Amino acid sequence: MNKYLENVDDDFLYHFGFGLKTVDIPKTFADVKFVCTGGSPTRLKLYAEWFSKECKLDCSDNLSKSDRFVMYKTGPVLWINHGMGTPSLSIMLVEALKLLHHANAKDVKFIRLGTSGGVGVEPGTVVVTTNAMNAELNDKYVQWIGGKKVPKTRPTLSFLPFPNLIALANEKKIPVESGLTMCADDFYEGQMRLDGFFCEYKTEDKFDFLKRIHEKGVRNIEMESTCFASMTFRAGVKAAIVCVTLLNRMKGDQVKIPHDQYIEFEERPFRLVTALIKKYLGIN
Amino acid sequence: MNKYLENVDDDFLYHFGFGLKTVDIPKTFADVKFVCTGGSPTRLKLYAEWFSKECKLDCSDNLSKSDRFVMYKTGPVLWINHGMGTPSLSIMLVEALKLLHHANAKDVKFIRLGTSGGVGVEPGTVVVTTNAMNAELNDKYVQWIGGKKVPKTRPTLSFLPFPNLIALANEKKIPVESGLTMCADDFYEGQMRLDGFFCEYKTEDKFDFLKRIHEKGVRNIEMESTCFASMTFRAGVKAAIVCVTLLNRMKGDQVKIPHDQYIEFEERPFRLVTALIKKYLGIN
């Protein structure tokens, strides 16, 4: 994808803290088939440990040598967190794609296991994203390069068609919906929360907005989906976004769920994605 | 700033993992006079420890109960990291502003101590930001709220006039420049790096762009300045942005400096800001 990367002597993946000269990248990463990601470093570590236990595969130490991201490997599955928002995610994706390119890994799929605010769905529902919608309310990932808006802004759709995630969720008795995912650029005003430091709109504006996007097919709001869908599409890798909702924004703005329930909700995208990966890799 | 926050029974600061009901916020935070921030959690912890040692003030444990940010307190100075990019920063700023509001803290100043890519300046130079420039190359922080671009996009200037940071840097023998800071939305294409996974422009396009922004007065590029300047301005708090450059983008794209030099570079914004805070608080 980038002719300037051909035959380079070194490539240091700054936000992972290692490069071609410090790690034997093909040896360590050539067998990767799935990259699983999500915002929180602790959650991604937990997912890697759960997956390791469930599939009887060793879990590596944290392979990232920088504090910007964590990275764990369980056999052919890599677990990397991406922080919050599209800028942070874009850095992780670019460096992960470069890593897999240097490793000669083939047919890798990317899955985002996130948390989100539900729009008209019950807390704990796992939303399987059909497409991403940006803050302008269209299906593009907006990039500015060299002072110009990229003329054909990036399309966003790149999703895994097989196996059917909805059927798999039903089989596992995980509450599931599919729909559009709105990608906001902030947690408060960009999602029309009433509990931020700034608030120049009214309660009725918030509900008008939520109803409007619900009618367009939006079922949850998070902060990474357009970039994730667009970059994976552009790189030619299959991807999926599977987020649990922590609240129904039609009923409130604050996330206040007891710790035990939070862990059980966090587990739901993991259970679904693990079932998908096991099927894909033929693990029983 | 937000009438919906008046007389609330509880306010849970989700990304700090505590709220009015779980922590005595006025008792813990009423004395805060400075919030120092930057992207990396490890660096902010290090800064807090250095400051504690230098000023003989106790350093708290990590006060954040969430893994999204870290928070340390050394007397009247709070150290919180903000992750990478404006979306992540906006969450931290909103919750820090709410925290200080609930604490009844007065006259608090915010300082970002960051790392950045230099534009025509030597690596290790500390750039004191005079104003922030967005990826559209104007001095606004662009927000989309309720599907609409905020009509009067936010101004960005809110900087500390006193004491003069440049004079202070000269006094401390820290290499310093002042100038515009460009805020990009990603690390690779948004900054026209040639070493990303994607690259649809040429070497000459990159240098044309860097020359163009240098002529406009840009001396460094990072990923948070517009949001930081704009939100602090809007909240009515004084602020400053002080970033060290890790490379000169006119000469390359990869950050490759030996660990010892990296630590010494990281120390420069800290030394400058510590001198400022000590002057301000009357600490010898």
Automatic annotation (TrEMBL), chains A, B:
Signal peptide: none annotated. This is Nucleoside phosphorylase domain-containing protein. Belongs to the PNP/UDP phosphorylase family. InterPro entries: Nucleoside_phosphorylase_d, Nucleoside_phosphorylase_sf, Uridine_phosphorylase_euk. GO terms for molecular function: uridine phosphorylase activity. It comes from the Eukaryota. It holds the Pfam family PNP_UDP_1. Residues 33-278 form the Nucleoside phosphorylase domain. GO terms for cellular component: cytosol. GO terms for biological process: nucleotide catabolic process; uridine catabolic process. Substrate binds at residues 191, 193. It comes from Haemonchus placei (Barber's pole worm). Phosphate binds at residues 68, 112-115.
